[in-house]
């Protein structure tokens, strides 16, 4: 066996780890493919039989068979019964088209710009920023480190093995409500006080997708949308891309100023009002019960829709979260947006819309165009997590941790920046609204902070003649990190004051 040059070469080249997450037969297959690509194993070379190959590498014969089957399925070897296994070179499937008018060095390059005009969109310019800083303050995102990786792997694997998935991917019967739609409907009825049926509900990839679809259904060019005077940049981008005009409404300690709308607008002039009822974005102010009733009454009188975005309903630390306006809506005025699974990995989170049946029916037409199949494995897994109570368990477990982090952040802010900031201890959510006094340039604050290894993205900075504040997201920071970040923020603030 050792006299064969091929056997000696294989024994020398192939190494594998039985403890690796990658199957042994895959590791070996990849190394043989690499040897073929490098020319060590040439076309028509005969490989040893599976019994000899197994003895050579000290693997089970079934593993050796799996290696050859894998190579054959990819076209790297040909298995001839009673003759052996022989190396092949897969045919080149594509060929380079040589453009003779181009210089030799540019023949295989791809054009950087189009040869035709197209319309660019200012509203969709990316707000993403990047930094090498070790610490970051975001606008209130969950901590991925709290997510149970091994449990997710188990849940996802179990969902993948469900035999019913095949029929879901290739439906032939008339559409009925899925198990996930029924489970989500039951979950929202139990947690948010709804009395809805699946035909009042649509599930999307995210709240941004939900809002985009609703804006397509609801808005036409030059329609008027009212938002809070600081408002959410991503939502504004979606409204503007739909061609709508945006006007801002004052927000005070009771939330959106409904009386301002009554005094400054007329019946039929408003298409919709966008409001984060549970916690205003970015100020975290809750829309009071009185204001909610006023807004519902005004919507009926002025004939406009209310888009109620309840993006962080699940993160309530004191008392109970106020129930959605949508459950008090008897006139079909409220379109309710929310998130499910914020204690799960981002790829397992989903958005949803609750609205009257006729609007949901139209929204599903848009969703079918954008995302016809959806993520059936995700839906299968979420259905089981809801049914088995895991969703509730994760929310309660992580909620305790986030509350502790919020309380610790408040302590650190009071100790380090007591005379320089004002903030309210929000009853929930993963962010605090922090105002600075005396006022400073927040752009300069961000510059000084980055020099101290702390990144403040522009999307959390709010500054005008009346406002000098940041939305301080703490959910992704543990207590040690919170302490360091607050100290760096104080140091950066002091440096800016010193340079004024």
TrEMBL record:
Signal sequence, start to end: none
Transcription found in the keyword field: yes
InterPro entries, alphabetized: Aminotransferase_I/II_large (IPR004839), HTH_trans_reg/aminotransferase (IPR051446), PyrdxlP-dep_Trfase (IPR015424), PyrdxlP-dep_Trfase_major (IPR015421), Tscrpt_reg_HTH_GntR (IPR000524), WH-like_DNA-bd_sf (IPR036388), WH_DNA-bd_sf (IPR036390)
Gene Ontology molecular function, alphabetical: transaminase activity
Coiled-coil residue spans: none
SUPFAM superfamilies for this protein: PLP-dependent transferases (SSF53383), Winged helix' DNA-binding domain (SSF46785)
Highest taxon in the source lineage: Bacteria
Lipid metabolism among keywords: no
SMART domains documented for this protein: HTH_GNTR
HTH gntR-type domain sequence ranges: 22-90
Keywords: Aminotransferase, DNA-binding, Pyridoxal phosphate, Transcription, Transcription regulation, Transferase
Family named by the database record: In the C-terminal section; belongs to the class-I pyridoxal-phosphate-dependent aminotransferase family.
PANTHER family: HTH-TYPE TRANSCRIPTIONAL REGULATORY PROTEIN GABR (PTHR46577:SF1)
Protein name: PLP-dependent aminotransferase family protein
């Amino acid at each position: 066996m050792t006299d064969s040059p091929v056997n000696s070469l294989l024994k020398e080249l192939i190494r594998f780890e039985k403890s690796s997450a990658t199957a042994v037969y895959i590791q070996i297959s990849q190394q043989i493919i690499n040897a073929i690509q490098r020319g060590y194993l040439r076309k028509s070379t005969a490989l040893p039989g599976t019994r000899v190959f197994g003895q050579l590498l000290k693997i089970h014969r079934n593993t050796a068979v799996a290696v050859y089957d894998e190579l054959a399925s990819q076209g790297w070897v040909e298995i001839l019964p009673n003759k052996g296994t022989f190396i092949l070179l897969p045919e080149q499937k594509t060929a380079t088209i040589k453009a003779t008018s181009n210089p030799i060095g540019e023949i295989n390059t791809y054009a950087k710009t189009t040869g035709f005009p197209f319309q660019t969109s200012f509203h969709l310019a990316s707000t993403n920023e990047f930094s090498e800083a070790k610490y970051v303050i975001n606008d209130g995102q969950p901590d991925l480190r709290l997510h149970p990786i091994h449990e997710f792997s188990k849940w996802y694997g179990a969902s993948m093995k469900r035999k019913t998935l095949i029929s879901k991917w290739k439906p032939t019967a008339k559409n009925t409500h899925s198990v996930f739609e029924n489970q989500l409907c039951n979950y929202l009825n139990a947690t948010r006080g709804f009395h809805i049926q699946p035909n009042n509900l649509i599930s999307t990839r995210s709240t941004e997708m939900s809002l985009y679809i609703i804006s397509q259904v609801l808005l036409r060019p030059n329609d008027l949308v009212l938002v809070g005077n600081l408002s959410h940049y991503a939502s504004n981008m979606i409204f503007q891309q739909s061609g709508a005009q945006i006007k801002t409404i004052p927000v005070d300690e009771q939330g959106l100023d409904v009386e301002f709308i009554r005094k400054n607008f007329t019946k039929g002039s408003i298409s919709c009002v966008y409001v984060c009822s549970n916690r205003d974005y970015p100020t975290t102010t809750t829309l009071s019960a009185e204001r909610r009733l006023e807004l519902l009454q005004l919507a009926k009188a002025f004939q406009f829709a209310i888009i109620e975005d309840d993006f962080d309903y699940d993160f309530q630390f004191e008392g109970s979260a106020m129930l959605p306006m949508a459950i008090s809506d008897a006139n079909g005025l409220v379109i309710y947006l929310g998130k499910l699974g914020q204690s799960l990995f981002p790829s397992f989170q989903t958005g949803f819309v609750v609205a009257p049946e006729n609007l949901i029916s139209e929204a599903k037409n848009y969703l079918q165009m954008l995302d016809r199949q959806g993520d059936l494995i995700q839906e299968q897994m979420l259905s089981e997590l809801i049914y088995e109570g895991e969703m509730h368990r994760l929310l309660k477990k992580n909620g305790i941790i986030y509350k502790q982090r919020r309380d610790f952040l408040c302590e650190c802010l009071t100790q380090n920046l007591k005379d320089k900031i004002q903030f309210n201890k929000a009853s929930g959510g993963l962010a605090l609204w922090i105002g600075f006094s005396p006022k400073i340039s927040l752009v300069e604050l961000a510059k000084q902070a980055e020099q101290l290894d702390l990144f403040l993205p522009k999307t959390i900075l709010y500054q005008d003649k009346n406002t000098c504040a940041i939305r301080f997201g703490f959910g992704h920071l543990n207590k040690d990190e919170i302490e360091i970040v607050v100290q760096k923020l104080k140091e950066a603030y002091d440096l800016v004051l010193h340079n004024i």
